[in-house]
Amino acid sequence: MSRTSVALEDEEKQRCPAGASPPHFTPDTSHSLPERLNLEPPVSAVETSPSPSSNGTGLLSLPWEIVTQIASHLPAQNLTNSPTQVCQTLGKLGEDRLALQLRAQKLSGPAASFPVGPKEDFDWSKACLEMEQLIGCWTGHENQAERQEEAAGGVNSENLVDMQLDVDLNGAAEAGEENVQVQSQNASDSPHLIASSSTSSPLEHIILPSGHIADVNCVLLLGGEEALCVSGSRDRNVNLWDLREGPRGKLMHTLTGCGSISTHRGWVWCLASSGPLLASGSFDSTIRLWDLEAGGAERRLIQCKAAVLCLSCERDTVLAGSHDQKLSIFDTRAADPLVKSLHLHGDAVLCLAADDQYILSGSKDRTVALFDRRAGKLLQKVKLSSYLLSLSYSGREVWAGDNRGLAHTFSMHNSSLTPVSQFTVHRSLVTGVHYSPGALYTCSSDRTIKASLLSVKKSLGDLYPSLSAAHISYWMQVHLPSSPPNTLFTLHHPSQLSIEGGTLAIASGDMNVEVWRHRCEESESI
């Protein structure tokens, strides 16, 4: 007999009266033994991780491995927000770097590498949240994209005509006035509100009421989710839209300066904003600044020496890339706004991306330059085999689109720009890129004519072949930013795009602006 049994039997004899037989003893391992004896736990308990909570019988009483496995099935949004309000222990799972990495790898797929750039200081929580939102919003639209492609008549490669134009930028104002082919299609000929592929889709697709009489070149979302939209067109005007008015938005007004009948005297080619400041750049070699807090009143006119092809705004500073190979820095508060004119490239500056420390610029000379704003010097120039038309970066990862349909990735580390990889995402010009840790949007022109060729004097030609065609195939794709990119959705039409607060606005390659936004109860009944 074991010492434990002897000790228990002697104790019971002392508690029973003399001559009485002790009751039959059956050890109760779940209650009696732990109260009286300090026994060693079984081997299986030693091999299992301790529970987050040793009290109770709820979720937190389970081994940590099981809690982690359960949490892996929760959406990232719930894991990040809801549990932290209920339980700090579960909230720690939303900060677990390894758990987030495993979640991101599962979302991007076993054959993909994520992220493409440096993993150091990468925002895994934001990436997982954006990836799950992107998948939930866009994976239900494949059938609609196929129907749009069929409605477009398909593209027979044997019948395609490659375009090459020569726009004379010095005469761009006249080209904008005299040679722009205005489409005769009336706004009432097509529906303004288009239902998504399924009424249960989280997104609704709307077309803003007609406000331009020529192709829209650029679009910009402002003021957070579903607030304001700005569009710039070859009709030389900039329109300001309120997306909160009515089921399909409302045209507030067309921005015009004092004594002017249009926003610019040439095609409006680019837009940028910072807070209440809105900047528009044009082929008429000017930048116009507008005050959104004053209802779009004109703040000032900045005269440049060549067509303005790209813009970026940071507080009271405006950066402009132009056809004369220069990158200009302007202070909007100064009487003489030009702060510095940088000659970083040997050809037209086509795209910009900037923050408070660095400026990235891409040029027709097939280089991308990295400029340090604080030190005031050029840090690096990277030579490419193609030229970039669009740039976007977040954190240490840079994505860019070129003239051959490729998406290039670079890493930013220790004031150095390092090419990482490149992927074929389109057939030709990647005219727009938007990158964030968990999302990648690209849009492109395939450089092919479907119906007619617009005759223009001289044009940008080899820079932007799409300028000449009234009917060119444009495409937008939504990807997970992995290596290679995981394409979720392809949309026919867009030539430019803007993303803000979960809302997507696109210039659809004609006079229209289209918006994809989260569906609300009111829109579902329409």
Give an account of the 3D structure.
The strands form seven sheets. The chain has a five-stranded antiparallel β-sheet, with no helix packed on it. The longest helix is centred in the N-terminal third of the chain and has 15 residues, at 124-138. The chain contains twelve helices and 29 strands. The protein has 526 residues and is an alpha+beta fold. The model is unreliable at 21-49, 148-198, 447-462, 464-472 and 522-526 (pLDDT under 50). A hairpin with a 3-residue loop joins strand 16 (358-363) and strand 17. Helix 8 packs parallel to helix 9. The termini are far apart. Residues 46-57 have a biased composition (Polar residues). Residues 1-57 are annotated as: Disordered. It comes from Cyprinus carpio (Common carp). WD repeats lie at residues 209-246, 261-300. Keywords: Repeat, WD repeat.
